[in-house]
Amino acid sequence: MSRTKRASLAKETVRIMEDGGYTLDDGRMIDIREHIVDSLARTDLVRPDEFGDLIAPECIKQATKFDVRNETTLTAAERLVVERKLDGVLCLNFASAKNPGGGFLGGSQAQEESLARSSALVKTLESKWEYYEVHRS
């Protein structure tokens, strides 16, 4: 996919977040406002002095299995939920410390930009602007 196409998709994603939904080709409206509100309510900024509170007292000892695939982060997450029936799947965002969504508006292509084009991630990141202010100074 070209940089221009990725930038166009990024602009469409921003419009969808602002509108709170989108319309399918068959005319059906998909309303995502409730999901965005829920995501915003559950978004936390963890400051460096708060990390100690998050450390688990004991790790679960289980063998690690590596599975290398050529797929997006969200495709992998969906596969884990659907195929393996896993609950509570998390995705690590290899994020920009200075720009929510990295360079997704300009059509950049890395993991964070892919997540930003495919979700309302940027809206949740922007809700914790303090993080970016610290890293921009």
From TrEMBL:
Residues 10-136 form the Microbial-type PARG catalytic domain. This is TIGR02452 family protein. It comes from the Bacteria. Coiled coil: none annotated. The lineage of its organism: Bacteria, Pseudomonadati, Planctomycetota, Planctomycetia, Pirellulales. Pfam families: PARG_cat_microb (PF10021). InterPro entries: CHP02452, Macro_dom-like, PARG_cat_microbial. Gene3D superfamilies: Leucine Aminopeptidase, subunit E, domain 1.
